[in-house]
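Morning!

As promised:
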Amino acid sequence: MSGTHQYGRPRALTERRCAMSVVSELRRTSGGKSPKTPGSKRRSAAHRGDGRAALVFLAPWFVGLIVITAGPMIASGYLSFTDYSLLEPPSWIGLDNYTRMFDDPRLLNALQVTFTYVLVSVPLQLAAALALALLLDRGLRGLAIYRSVYYLPSLLGGSVAIALLWRQVFGADGLVNQFLAYFGIEGMGWVSHPDTALGTLMILNVWTFGAPMIIFLAGLRQIPRMYYEAAEIDGAGKVRRFRSVTMPLLTPIIFFNLVLQVINAFQTFTQAYVVSGGTGGPADSTMFYTLYLYQKGFASLDMGYASAMAWLLLAIVAGMTAVNFLASKYWVFYND
Amino acid sequence: MKSSTSRIRTARSTWWRTGAVLAAGALALSACSGDAGAGSSGSEDDGGETQAAEDDGPVEIRFAWWGSDTRHETTQQVIDLFEEKNPDITVVPDFTDWGGYWDKLATTVAGGDTPDVITQEERYLTDYAARGVLADLNEIGLDTSAIDEAVIESGTVADGLYGVATGVNAYSIVADPKAFEDAGVDMPDDTTWTWQDFVDVSNEISKATPDDTFGVQEFGGNEAGFSIFARQHGQSLYTPDGTLGYDDALLAEWYQTTVDLIDGGGEPDAARSVEIAEGGPEQSLIGTNKGAMGFWWSNQLGAISDAAGRDLELLRVPGESEFDRTGMYFKPAMYYSVAKDTEHPEAAAKFVDFLVNDPEAGALILSDRGLPSNTDVREAIAGDLSPVDQQVADFLKDLEDEIVDGPAVPPEGAADIPEISGRINTEVIFDRMSPQEAAEQFTSEANGAIGQ
């Protein structure tokens, strides 16, 4: 128990810190001396050299950004205004792809499926993550092991293997039905019924609560103990301490997790693809937005439309993130 | 990490350092992109360092196909044999399963990296040919003298031969005599049975067997079945003009058959059907000894028989003598096509020629890609066929006199039809659409897909 509060910062920040330390490292190697530089000729020559070295160090990242991110984005932006079958060169059709979206009931269905998935599974996932983090924060022995065990699904959750396993577990002769059979309940093919297939995918997402849990755990460690001690002296019980100390101080972490998981959930693809065998079925009930985009692009050879859909998705995710940030003013509490 | 000495040195050493870092960066980047060619073995850089268009020196061509592990092994043997006979030509295998094949092919075409020899399928051939991806096999000089005229016809799009069929298949019913026996139901006479007989027999078998055993596996989602049904009624799925050629009422009747089977217990409930359908031959009702009948392509008999571990029979589709005419037809199992932009048309043509016309290649491939379309090869391998393949050959031979004609080549955009058909059928079996609604929906979506 005594060592629990030695962690300096919540892990949420480690990514940023990691990135920052690289930057500061670079600054040290490149322009790090600049504030004190008197401006002698020789030194400024060396400066320019260091600047170049910095650029070179940055080059892999830069090349990555241009080749892997910016390039394809520009290309898909262009393609979204074209009729492009993949087999023939694209031809310009203006806004047709975007206007066609309004007459596409399957697109509407895909949006509905995706929004349902995000709105249901993300809160559940975060609740599970927080609950587990609170449990683990009580200074269990072998904490590292528990942490790893609960984190594991996060690593595996997006993989093909787990999606295949899921199909098995929730299949007509799967584990779930075998379990239900003990209680005399006759199960069904959960993944192959339109009413329940999406539910199994939501459960899969909730199950991968490990990543937000680790972040919550780090956030909990960051809350100064004195607040709890003070609250305790004031006679606050467990529930009250959680509501008045833990929750407010944890809101920035919750916010961070929320933003991240919402963005992730919107981009769900692998699970839906594998569990439905690539069809989004049964009867389009697991036709996620990204899956429909993929089908349009590669199966229907309509890459122009698929590109336009990709941009709509970007707009939706950006919009949701903006809403999150705006709403955060009303509930996120920064303790500075 | 950087020693302070470098700062004092001149720009020259900086440049040296810069170069070193750049090299390291390049290494790191190339390490990242190392697995670009997943799926295919061997090098992807076909044509990269080979001599231009002349086939004098050693050349490399890439051959793309889909299929099961057995097919991959057999095809590799064929390739080895070809390379032995043509030491100047290396054939790079490029295979995936059926699901990933078309995505991968479209992507490689878009990337300007089209495989030299491409395995094609009926519903995609027109799309690829019309968009200028495939070469006219007549132009590159493929010998088609020994190949069935009707088969050549099936690969012809707008006067060009864009694919040569590997062999023929028929969509038919696979039946398990043991399952009929267990249920105490007589095997039907497939030359006279009607669709109503078929529904009755299926329901009867389900009733007479344990709860997990059924008369027939769900089949409404494969448009080949409806194509036969429509032809029996003197209509068709597609017309030669590239439009849809049936009445919605007829399609609704087709869906109604499925509904009758579900209501009567002849086929499993919808959720189970969806699950079974994803499992392929191995997990089919017959394959797991839990059903008496199923609709399959005739060349799948081997795989299903293996899975079932029993002797199975091929039956004609119901209704062949019920209406105006017969509906069954021979479908080219798949096609070999050559890329229009191949750098080695001669080598590619030689390889396709080997695949279709060489008896030794035929002896390896046997009926894996349908019964060989080259009649000489078909005769040559007759003695080598396994009992199951022989069974298929006999069945197809019996059909020869009954089959009136082939259906029209699917129009451009038909590649979307399997997906639409499967999805709307799912709506029907889950009772989310009535047969009439489903028929209208299918027609509307199919028209959209083929641009009508």
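The CA atoms of residues 106 and 284 of chain A lie 8 Å apart.

Hope this helps with the figure draft.
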